[in-house]
Amino acid sequence: MRVTAVAGGTGAAKLLRGLAACLAPGELTVIGNTGDDTEIWGLHVSPDLDTVTYALAGRLDVARGWGLAGETFRCLEAMGDLGAETWFNLGDRDLATHVQRTRALRAGAPLSAVTAELARRLGVSARILPMSDDAVRTRVRTPDGWLTFQEYFVREKAQVEVRAVEYAGADAARPAPGVLEAIAEAGLVVICPSNPVTSVGPVLAVPGIAAALGARRARVVAVSPIVGGAAVSGPAAALMRARGLDVSPLGVAAAYAPWLGTLVLDRRDAAHADALGRVGVRAIAADTLMTDPARERALARIVLEAA
Ligand code: GDP
């Protein structure tokens, strides 16, 4: 069965590893968030695409949830000695990814081609597509003004009040080649347990993608990133509140209305199943905390069976 997954970073990486383990090579396509792409030291960094690529290549630092396993940070240290900003943790080997990406982009290659080549070189058999080749940048408004997503998330450690979120450039962005087809032709479309506002939100903001999902409603299955009234990790709860969404599976379903068909929610949230049914979303309760590879595969199987 062909499966297309919409993915952010660390939460998505776990389910994608599980899905890849259950599917034949080539059956999995990932549509990755590029709203949190940024420029560091003149290099184009795509944090979510890299997390997904490294995870599927078996090279992700699983404890941190980002970057390469066994990484060193000597260049970062040296940059600090030279007076450069060092709040964004670029590892020594990770740097090679960003140098190659930046070189290829400067030579005129679209991000989709660069992403495919990086994945191929790292031995990933899944197809990884950026949501768009055009720049879409998530920005967060705080009491002191607008921040880029990485300034908010990494530099400020998400410890500032968020008053608004926007996806700059989204209105004029086009889906990357293959994105709409991957949604239209999949037997199952999975929305990974990712931040609904800053990981899935930017993908949905690209004109055409939400409509494509709407045409496949019965085949769209999301996994809730909210468990027991809180995010498993990261600032999803604060960002959902800033958008007026309830921090619960119902809020996740509201963020994904009207095209969400099925929501896999955690067993401890099973009481929300009836309310989800009333808004037309089928609910499946499961153990959704992916704390080891066996649990990643078990959740992946539940998602696949939901189709
Ligand atoms: P980011 O770009 O690194 O923030 O990564 P994502 O957006 O992909 O993932 C963050 C979201 O995934 C957070 O809202 C977490 O609550 C959620 N998440 C992380 N791990 C798990 C897990 O094991 N199970 C579930 N259900 N959600 C998770």
Explain this structure.
This protein is 39% helix and 19% strand. With 307 residues, it is an alpha/beta fold. The chain has a single domain (3-59, 110-132, 168-305), classed as Rossmann fold, CATH 3.40.50.10680. The strands form 4 sheets. It has a 7-stranded parallel beta sheet, sandwiched between helices. Strands 7-6-8 form a 3-stranded antiparallel beta sheet. The protein has a two-stranded antiparallel ribbon with strand order 3-4. Helix 1 runs parallel beside helix 2, helix 1 packs across helix 13 (293-306) and helix 4 (92-106) packs antiparallel against helix 5. It is globular and about 60 Å long. The chain starts with a strand and ends with a helix. The structure holds guanosine-5'-diphosphate. Guanosine-5'-diphosphate binds next to helix 1.
Would you kindly provide a brief summary of this structure?
Helices cover 39% and strands 19% of the residues. By secondary structure, it is α/β, with parallel strands linked by helices. The protein has a single domain (3-59, 110-132, 168-305), classed as Rossmann fold (3-Layer(aba) Sandwich), CATH 3.40.50.10680.
Would you list the SSEs in sequence order as H and E?
EHEEEHHHHEEEHEHEHHEEEHHEHEH
Q: Which compounds are bound in this model?
A: guanosine-5'-diphosphate
As residue ranges, the low-confidence spans are none
**What spatial order of strands do you see in the largest sheet?**
5-2-1-9-10-13-14
Task: Please give the largest β-sheet.
Answer: 7 strands, parallel
CA(first)-CA(last) distance: 10 Å
CATH architecture: 3-Layer(aba) Sandwich
CATH first level: Alpha Beta
The percent range for helix content is: 25-40%
Please state the average pLDDT score.
97
Helix segment tally: 13
Radius of gyration, in angstroms, nearest whole number: 18 Å
Structural class call reads: alpha/beta
Integer tally of domains: 1
**C-alpha geometry:** globular
> What fraction of the residues are assigned to beta strands by DSSP?
15-25%
CATH names the topology as Rossmann fold
Quaternary structure state of the chains depicted: single chain
